[in-house]
Amino acid sequence: MSNPVQIKNALISVYYKDNLEPIIHELNRLGVTIYSTGGTETFIRNLGVNVVAVEDLTSYPSILGGRVKTLHPKVFGGILARRSFESDEQQLAEYEIPEIDLVIVDLYPFEETVSSGAGQEDVIEKIDIGGISLIRAAAKNFKDVVIVASKNDYGTLEEILKNQNGSTTIDQRKKFAHKAFNISSHYDTAIFNYFNEEDPLPVFKQSIQSSQVLRYGENPHQKGVFYGNL
Question: What letter does residue 199 receive in the DSSP assignment?
């Protein structure tokens, strides 16, 4: 396996908990320490699995009505630390920060809230801060960290945990990071377009998620992809 990383510590904080249970049980089987927050922490405890509250890691409570939960050096330090940098490892030890090898996080349903016709105050509260920051941090450090930013990838992660006993390759981590940056980019585009409807800037941004790979492009030797809905 190329540049294998063994998952020892995981941070899990998700809005949608569908199909999360098998992942939790696999991590528990592998002896992975799980850190979590809020409803996800409660969900994991109810499965009978040990979980460490992020507040216990940071020694700082969730504040501002939940707006600030994971935004702390003891969380982001463990995600962003470069394992091959001795100075990074020394600082983790000095400040008692655990390395976080797996981040499972999704985002508040911003587009769904807009589509529901909710008022501006409700829409603004669905602009994710902590989640998007965790996604970007973990994806940036894909050399050392696995980022799973969508429940659509739970099956892939579960297969890796089972077949590779919690060890991941650099190619697998990079693929997860690629998907994560796609999710964060789409999310930011949706937020921009929401504000742009009220006070338009001379800029057009569009993120189309639905696509289909074609047999070939304009000519047989070219690749082609269809974007949109058929």
Answer: S
Cα–Cα dist 177/173, whole Å: 6
Q: What is the tens place of the pLDDT at every residue in 13-26?
A: 999 999 999 999 99
Closest CA to 197 of 115, 132, 133: 115
Rounded to an integer, what distance in angstroms lies between the CA atom of residue 227 and that of residue 224? 10
Position 228, amino acid: G
Please state, in angstroms and rounded to a whole number, the distance separating the CA atoms of residues 65 and 63. Answer: 6
pLDDT in tens, 87-107: 999 999 999 999 999 999 999
Question: Is the pTM for the entire model greater than 0.90?
Answer: no
CA–chain centroid gap for 27, Å, is 17
Q: What's domain 5-227's architecture?
A: 3-Layer(aba) Sandwich (3.40)
Indicate the DSSP class of residue 6.
E
Task: Return the ∠ at Cα 169 (arms to 188 and 150), rounded to 5°.
Answer: 30
And the tokens for 86?
A: 């001795």
| Domain coordinates in residue numbering, the chain | 5-227
If one counts every other C-beta atom within 10 angstroms of the C-beta of residue 187, the result is 21
The closest alpha carbon to 212, from 203, 224, 198, 200, belongs to: 224
Burial 201-228 (b: 16+ CB within 10 A, else e): eeeeeeeeeeeeeeeeeeeeeeeeeeee
Both structure tokens of 89: 């490892």
Please tell me whether residue 167 adopts helix, strand or coil conformation.
strand
Name the token pair of 5: 């990383």
